[in-house]
Design brief:
2 domains, alpha/beta, two-stranded antiparallel sheet, single chain, about 15% strand, Rossmann fold, 7-stranded mixed β-sheet, 14 helices
Length: about 375
């Protein structure tokens, strides 16, 4: 029997969770949904529902069944995170109750807290180095009626730099923002063959292959550790047997076609090149742009879309300068980062500008 990915196995429980909320008001349901989505994404400060919602026994029951009941979540957040958030949740429920004869705290939530407190948890330093499951809710697909339960689950190293020295084992803000842009503009990848550069966890490639109907996605990276982790990412999202997505080791600045190859990628076309948060290191930008040049030489009609977080103006300007020197025109797409209060998933920092750049080589 073919092994199913955890996301496929859990689809029935997700539907059950939605039906349990049918009796809640839309305002309360929206607050609970948002809290659950932030929780599953390991948001450091999820927005806890308001007092009226927390006092409601049915709302507490839904929170328990969706997040803390045994086997409620196939791939749950780490216990240390669960404990911290559940403590905050129960403290706020307790603080908002003014009449204990009328309202109370769910016995099931209290039991969940007791169970978590009884566990032997790693210390903060050890926990920071452990990989953990992170689930990103794709709100744009739900709002447009395509898939209200659309999500991507990944096994990530949440520390800034993993033990192997790579930043590619977590999903960064620019990938999440570019993903939202593509969900709003699916025609960019629908029925197209896509190459993702510096893919890291594979978030964008999985999004394109699973939800945006790309014909095929080459998910590439220059790190061997990252490439070795991609099959796990595919499996977690039900793509383990898919012919739509495949990993590729690709090092920027190295020739794409070797002496024994007649054509790159077996001569198969690529229509779209995507990259997110791949311009953060000024030293690698020349190699990145050199690879883009070679791709355009091979694929003259290719569309290139790069999402760049402007953490440092000098670094982003360096990217623009190298593009200008190599003959690329860079056009910024208008797609502002939403404020945190406007985000329904995925959730990401809105303090830095994230530029979505379309590159086109000028005629020589």
């Amino acid at each position: 029997m073919t092994q199913e990915s955890p996301n496929v196995q859990k689809s029935g429980r997700n539907a059950a969770g939605r039906s349990e909320m049918a009796n809640l008001t839309s305002k309360r349901q929206k607050q609970i949904d948002r809290f659950c989505w932030q929780f599953l994404q390991l948001d450091s400060a999820p927005k806890i529902p308001d007092d009226d919602t927390l006092r409601d026994a049915e709302a507490q029951d839904v929170l328990y069944r969706r997040l803390f009941a045994p086997d409620a979540v196939a791939l749950p957040p780490p216990p240390r995170y669960q404990l911290r958030i559940l403590k905050q949740l129960i403290a706020k429920i307790e603080a908002c109750i003014t009449d204990w004869d009328e309202h109370g705290i769910s016995d099931e939530l209290m039991m969940s807290l007791s169970n978590l407190l009884s566990l032997r948890l790693p210390d903060e330093a050890a926990a920071a180095q452990q990989k953990c499951y992170v689930t990103y809710h794709l709100s744009k697909l739900g709002r447009e009626g395509r898939d209200p339960d659309a999500h991507i689950t990944l096994l990530e190293s949440r520390s800034l730099i993993s033990a192997g020295g790579t930043t590619g084992l977590r999903t960064w803000e620019a990938a999440l923002h570019l993903g939202q842009y593509l969900c709003a503009n699916p025609g960019f990848v629908q029925n197209k063959r896509v190459l993702e550069l510096g893919a890291g966890t594979g978030y964008l490639g999985i999004l394109c292959a699973k939800y945006l109907e790309a014909e095929h996605v080459l998910v590439s990276d220059g790190s061997e550790d990252v490439i070795n982790n991609l099959p796990d990412s595919f499996f977690l999202n039900g793509l383990q047997a898919s012919t739509r997505v495949s990993p590729l080791e690709l090092r920027w600045g190295h020739a794409l076609v070797g002496t024994e190859e007649q054509a790159w990628n077996g001569g198969r076309r690529v229509d779209v090149v995507l990259g997110a948060d791949i311009t953060y290191d000024e030293s690698v930008i020349p190699s990145l742009v050199a690879t883009l040049e070679e791709l355009v030489d091979i694929l003259p009609t290719v569309t290139i879309i790069i999402a760049a977080t402007e953490r440092n103006r000098k670094t982003f300007q360096s990217f623009l300068d190298v593009c200008e020197k190599r003959g690329f025109a860079v056009a910024n797409e208008s797609f502002p980062v939403p404020s945190r209060s406007e985000q329904d998933g995925p959730f990401y920092n809105n303090e830095n500008a994230i530029h979505i750049c379309k590159l086109q080589r000028r005629p020589k």
